[in-house]
Amino acid sequence: LEWRNSPTRRLYVPRSRLAPAPARPPSVPSPSIPLGAAVTSSHIRFSSPLFFSLIFDHRMAKRSRKKKQRMPTLSDDLIVESLCRVPYRSLCRFKCVSRSWLALCSDPDIRKKSPQTLSGFFCYARDRDDGCCSGLLLCSGWKSSCSGFDDYVVCNPATQKWTVLPDTGEQPNVVHTFCLGFDPSMPSRFYVFLFVRDSSRDLGRVKIYSSETGAWISRQHEWGDSIRLKDDVVPVFFNGTLYAVTSGLSLITVDTEGTTWRKIRMPHRSLRTRFEEVEVFIAHSQGRLYATHIDFHEDNVLSVWQFEADGNEQWSLKHTASITRLLGRRKNGYNEYYQVISAHPERNLILLTGGMGDELLAFDLDNQEVRAICTLEKYFQAPMLPYIPCFAEWPSDGR
Prior knowledge:
Blueprint: H1 49-70, H2 76-83, H3 88-94, H4 99-105, H5 108-113, E1 120-122, E2 131-133, E3 136-142, E4 149-156, E5 161-164, E6 177-181, E7 191-197, E8 203-210, E9 215-220, E10 236-238, E11 241-245, E12 250-255, E13 261-265, E14 281-285, E15 288-295, E16 301-308, E17 314-322, H6 323-326, E18 338-343, E19 349-354, E20 359-364, E21 369-375, E22 385-387
């Protein structure tokens, strides 16, 4: 059976498939159908399943042709722009769709723009001058004159390229603090913050290096007197602002231009009445800043605060849970303690280390569950710096 593209859309069928015409009254003559003649729908009984099947198939085919005609086609540029916004892990899955998608998703230009997620950690940092921010590393090295850690390099492990920073102009033997600032959404530039200390170890000035200008700018900070950084808290950079914690348990911020300075009270200050030394950690996840604290005296109770940057600059307590109880056991004296090392950038997960077996743990804030990821090496040392690969091109020395 087939349809012919004639104006009347007649149907040609074999004689053996035709149903016999019903008996008609004498007044209405029965139509004669010669063998091989063109047959219209009037020759087929309306109760015949063949008739309804043919009509249904015809209408569906007609609708399908209309849908195909209305379906807009995307240009290659729009498809590439859409795929560039897909996480890299999903991009790898799309390669299994077809050969054309395999070739398209394997394009290195798409991979460079594709957003990445947490891939691992850098451990055993040799010096506090070393640092990691998203996909870049800040490293210090010896000059040939052996005058100290004078050479500072920002490198990208994913592309194996690096940039040597120009001389800071500071005395080589004075201990200062360097912080790296890099935002994967703007991969064409990075920043380095240098906290210059005076003879009393208080902060005096802040120098900021921009990869766009290739030079340092110096600013006198506006945080007040007697400002010292809390050395065991790794600063955080996102949305063009660097966040650090002082020894007085205040959050200090500065932008990349050195024009906006803020000093905010940390929620941990209320804990000083109970503890002489307060464990502090800050991290950013899903565009928000978080602060954490673990109470070692009370079954390792983890508290998580979120910074409400709505103009009031207040902290709000979001989660409280005992890590020991969630693991289904009782605290084993002071030998069992935990330390927050990171927050997942895309999920409500807090990553911790510690316990009796030196494990790496993941705490799901939504489900209030803790699970072990792996066992760390025997002589593991903090900090663990989260690493998010970045394949985008950025200014370098070409090496």
